[in-house]
Each structure stands twice: as C-alpha cells, then as structure tokens.
Amino acid sequence: MINLRNIEKKYKDNLIFDNINFDFKENTSYAITGINGCGKSVLLKIICGFSLPDQGTVHINGEKLGVKYDFIPNAGVSINAPEFVKTMTGYENLKALAEIKNICTDEDIHNLCRQLGIDQALNKKYKTYSLGMKQKLRLAQALMENPDILILDEPFNALDENSVKVVKDILNKFIRQPNKILIFTSHHIDDVEDLADVILLIKDQKLYICE
Ligand SMILES: Nc1ncnc2c1ncn2[C@@H]1O[C@H](COP(=O)(O)OP(=O)(O)OP(=O)(O)O)[C@@H](O)[C@H]1O
User: Hey, whose CA ends up nearest to atom 2 of ligand 1?
Assistant: First the structure.
C-alpha cells in the first residue's frame, strides 16, 4: 500500500500539488492522466522519493519515506531514468544494476529482453540505441526483478504498434500476480483503458478519481 497524505509541492511560485491524499492499493493498476505539465512525472517522483514534497508524507507499506528508506523499496521504476551508461552495452547496464540485489539471473534478463524484442541489441553500446530501444531497456530494468510495485512514466512512448501490444501483455501479466501495484502515466486513452483498474486525473493541483 502506498499512502499519500497532504502532499503539497511547489517549484518557486509554481504550485504543482495542493493537499493531495490518495491510497494506492495492492492488486490494482492505476493510470495517471492530465495535460502536459500538470505534474504526472512529479507525482511519480514524489512516490519514489526522488523528489521531496514541501508538505505531507508518503508511506510505503507503513514505512514513511525518508525514515527507514529514502527511496521506495521493492519497486521497479522508469521515469526517464535511470539514464544508462552510454559507453556500456545494454546488457552490461542491466547486469550492473542486477548485481546490486542479485535476485534476477542472466536468464531472467535475456528472457525479458527477448519478449521486449531487444535481445539482439543487448550487446550494442547504449549510446547507439534508438528512443524505442532506450524505452525497452528502461522497462526491462524496471521489470527484471519482478518488483512488488511498478512505476512507469509514459511506458508506451516511442514504441511501435507491436511493441505496445507486447508491453501491455507483459504489464497485464505483471498485475495479475498477487499483491502487485502498477502505476503508470499516459496521454493515450487506449493504453489507459486497456491497463488501468483506476484512472486518476491531475487537474488544478488536485488528484481526482475518474469514474
Ligand atoms: N526540477 C524542476 N524544477 C522546476 N520546475 C519543475 C521541475 N520539475 C518539474 N517542474 C515543473 O512541474 C510541472 C509538472 O511537471 P511534470 O514533468 O510532472 O509534468 P507532466 O504532467 O509529467 O507533463 P508531460 O505530460 O508533459 O510529461 C511543470 O510545470 C514543470 O515545469
């Protein structure tokens, strides 16, 4: 469970969130929508601990972010980051990150990359990757440890039609496992409707549930 309580966020005099409260529950997929610049990415960063709210708290499974953990634990995250090491191959980048926790195997990495269609590119340097390949490598990194929580900023951007379908299948399988939470942002109503149990809208610095 992820609990947002009284979240307020400003950049100088630009108020992004005014007293947001929301609970993200297990076994549920959430889409966050809203116009450009409304705060979708900032909200994901606050949930992850990458950006601090000016007021309010984020609790992850009862633990307040900033006390035991500075960053969300057991989560796979893709928010235009991590920016991978350009001079390393795709595989070397994933492997280096996988070695931190050592819970996913080489086989896991290769299987996932095969599904995503970047296995052939894994031995190429990251700096040669196209936008779509970069997106897929970020998704592979977020998914490879089968985290409890998956947080994805615009996961379908830069993907071709077939890849969108593949990624939707992967995310649908992910959320059908017990006790998972998926939170993603999107501008595309098809993606939102295909994947989200709950659609959230950021408007006028508030977060609304779309019925
Ligand atoms: N580090 C920062 N410093 C100052 N302002 C910021 C910073 N990060 C975000 N903002 C501002 O916060 C607002 C929300 O940005 P955010 O990136 O969350 O929008 P978004 O809803 O994800 O937009 P898009 O749909 O274009 O991706 C914008 O006005 C943006 O300029």
Answer: 11
Ligand 1 atom 6: the closest Cα is on which residue? 11
Shortest-distance Cα residue to atom 9 of ligand 1: 42
Quote the ipTM score: 0.98
pLDDT digits (tens, 9 = 90+) for 124-152: 999 999 999 999 999 999 999 999 999 99
Q: Which atom of ligand 1 is nearest to the CA of 43?
A: 18
Place of tokens 């195997």: 105
List the domains of the chain with CATH numbers. 1-74+149-211 (3.40.50.300), 83-147 (no CATH)
Q: In the structure encoding, which two tokens stand for residue 151, read together?
A: 């947080």
Task: Give distance in angstroms: CA of 37 to centre of ligand 1.
Answer: 5
**Ligand 1 site, residue 203, Cβ cutoff 6 A:** no
Q: What is the pLDDT of residues 81-123, one digit of tens each?
A: 657 999 999 999 999 999 999 999 999 999 999 999 999 999 9
Pocket flag, ligand 1, residue 71 (CB < 6 Å): no
